[in-house]
Design a protein that fits this description.
Length: 656
């Protein structure tokens, strides 16, 4: 059904009055289909699928279960709603874990190649991080060359995917109490590939048919993501490309430049993005761009690659995931280069209306209608230069009448808040510590910390306002916010990730932000960088004063507009690590009340945390704040303590 009011805040519409809306209106006038149009054409979407009551794991099906009791209550094999939903949940977590693991594997191979001198242009940029990971892996460093250490670290990282025995090495970075709990429950993650393969086996027809056992495996599997694949990707990328430090950048479609050769890099693995950054530093390419009438070459990112480029180089972010078609629709993009994950097939159709070239770069991720330039470790910079030349050659084909770049030059954003950076900012080089953070949580200036992560999509009302509205309410009540992925991308484009936004905070948080010099909403990186939040939580426990485990901390996580299977894996590893996690929109197991109850109640008895699913976005801030206040009550830090001034006689009575 056509939406006749394009400015109304209904599902399928971005924020009213935004540059995105203007571009959508132009695309509609040109008859160019968008993600919002395709969403409307899918209505009504399959009710069985939305409730997790559809199964096609064998050719006896597909089978459906009637949630209203009039139709079948079991599949042909006898599987009930709980088995249907738990299998689907586990398979989603397996796909999400595999996505982050494959990302990490590519980085590990690159680290080995760079250490051996087989990847021209790449080198070790953070030796301190390398030494930290080497220590965690038990790699000897004394008297050895950096590249020798890096090669062994890379080889050991690769072993984490398929080793026949043992558990993930990074697990030892979790609080000891959490490690013991995982061991007691039998969910300490083993080899990453083993957890993914076993999950696929368990969910095949006729194997694991106990929903409680399936959800238990989902915890072990997802922990192999958070404390394995994602953490490996983050740490090895820091070693190769540098650990992020605060950097000033800009975000939204206004960062594209009218008189420049514009290249957009979209996807998730920064290997290709880094190669293109290196390639464009070649002065001969700039001269070539000027020779065809451009002033130079401009790079911008979309999705998580945008976050990677932003936190390490300050390269502007054109937008989050749902803005990829809109970037092309500016008519000012010569070339969009993509790697893996969250890249929509419709881009191949969208570029047909403009001069833009769409280039895929990996054999595992091709798109019909796109050109392909294979990028590997040994020839990455060479391939990147070829891609940049393609963009330069395409500049004369630009149609000036189709160019529409929003007048806004981009919202400023300060990004790059790795957990090492936060420690440094709180304590300096020699006294780096989370002590000031813990102290300010205990004294109430900061009520707690909320991590926002996840996707964007056409299913929810108000578009970009969801995450922004959430963080505005949280910081006004003195809750510090840390953002990753496309959630961070939305916030970055709305101007809330700058120190000046402290004026929107409550009195306590504002004072902390002013003293430390940080924004109230910290940009921590891409979706794999949620592992930074896990380490930060572990550091808070280690620092003391806020309990003995992550589950004791006054922290919470939230994803308002989840879309990807990666989001399910991320949510499950946060819950299994002890963090209360809220997802907006629908639950992935709605049609199975027992599974839903296990996720939203039963897991808390096992791991000290649980899921919550809430369709009403306006209720989510209070859910998060109520949980954190409950944790504060349990810690006894909400109780006002009498202040006593001790005289000399009182001091003598103190026991030391």
């Amino acid at each position: 059904m056509e939406n006749k009011n394009p400015t109304s805040k209904t599902p399928g519409n971005p924020t009213a009055g935004s540059a995105s809306l203007k571009l959508l209106e132009r695309m509609k006038a040109e008859g160019i289909e968008t993600i919002y149009d395709r969403y409307q054409l899918q209505q009504p979407q399959c009710g069985y699928g939305q409730l997790a009551l559809c199964c096609r794991h064998c050719n006896w099906g597909p089978c459906n279960i009637d949630p209203f009791g009039k139709g079948p209550k079991k599949g042909v094999c006898g599987a009930d709603a709980n088995t249907f939903a738990a299998r689907q949940f586990l398979r989603m977590a397996a796909a999400g874990t595999a996505s982050h693991a494959d990302h990490a594997r590519a980085v590990a191979y690159l680290l080995v190649a760079a250490a051996r001198g087989e990847a021209p242009g790449y080198k070790i940029k953070d030796e301190e991080k390398l030494m930290m990971v080497a220590e965690c892996f038990g790699v000897k460093t004394e008297g050895r060359k950096i590249n020798e250490i890096a090669e062994e670290v890379g080889e050991m990282a690769l072993a984490e995917f398929g080793k026949p025995y043992g558990t993930q090495l990074f697990v030892k970075r979790a609080p000891e109490s959490r490690q013991k709990l995982w061991e007691k429950l039998g969910i300490t993650p083993r080899a990453i590939d083993r957890e993914v393969a076993e999950s696929m086996h368990r969910t095949s027809m006729g194997t694991d048919q106990d929903y409680r056992n399936l959800i238990k495996q989902a915890m072990r599997l997802s922990l192999a993501n958070g404390w394995g694949g994602s953490m490996l990707a983050t740490e090895l990328q820091d070693i190769l490309f540098g650990t992020p430090k605060p950097v000033l950048g800009k975000s939204n479609l206004g960062v594209l430049k009218k008189d420049y050769v514009n290249i957009i890099i979209h996807g998730h693995e920064p290997i290709i993005a880094e190669a293109i950054v290196m390639a464009t530093s070649d002065p001969s390419l700039t001269k070539a761009a000027q020779a065809v009438g451009a002033k130079g070459i401009a790079i911008a990112g979309i999705c998580c690659t945008a976050n990677e480029l932003l936190v390490r180089h300050g390269i502007p972010m054109a937008g989050h995931m749902t803005m990829q078609e809109l970037a092309v629709a500016t008519g000012a993009v010569e070339l969009m280069v993509v790697d893996v994950q969250c890249i929509i097939q419709a881009l191949a159709d969208t570029v047909q209306h403009f001069h833009t070239k769409l280039i895929t770069t990996l054999s595992k991720a091709k798109i019909c209608g796109a050109e392909h330039v294979e990028v590997d470790e040994e020839h990455a910079v060479e391939a990147a230069k070829k891609i940049v030349w393609m963009a330069i050659d395409n500049y004369p084909n630009r149609n000036p009448s189709k160019v529409f770049i929003p007048e806004d030059t981009g919202a400023e954003v300060v990004a790059g808040f790795s957990h090492e950076t936060i420690k440094y900012m709180l304590g300096g080089r020699f006294r780096a510590s989370y002590r000031p953070l813990n102290d300010n949580i205990m004294n109430g200036r900061i009520r707690g910390v909320v991590g926002i992560a996840g996707c964007t999509g056409p299913k929810v009302p108000a578009g970009d306002e969801n995450y922004v509205s959430l963080v505005k309410e949280l910081i006004s009540k003195d809750f510090l916010v840390v953002g990753t992925g496309c959630a961070a991308g939305q916030c970055a484009g709305s101007g809330v990730m700058i120190p000046e936004f402290k004026d929107a905070c409550g009195k306590g948080l504002k004072e902390v932000c002013e003293t430390v010099g940080i924004p109230p909403v910290l940009h921590a990186g891409a979706c794999v960088d949620n592992s930074r939040i896990l380490i930060a939580c572990s550091e808070m426990v280690k620092e003391g004063g806020l309990g003995n485990d992550i589950s004791d901390l006054p922290v919470a996580g939230v994803c308002l507009e989840w879309m990807s299977e990666k989001a399910i894996a991320i949510g499950q590893y946060f819950v299994a690590s002890g963090v209360f996690t809220v997802f907006g929109m629908n639950s992935p197991v709605t049609g199975a009340p027992d599974v839903l109850k296990l996720l939203t109640e039963g897991l808390e008895e096992q791991v000290g945390a649980r899921w919550a699913f809430e369709r009403d976005m306006k209720k989510i801030p209070q859910l998060l704040m109520d949980h954190i206040e409950k944790k504060r009550d349990a810690l006894g830090i909400n109780v006002a303590k009498e202040r006593k001034l001790y005289d000399m006689e009182d001091r003598r009575k103190l026991e030391v």
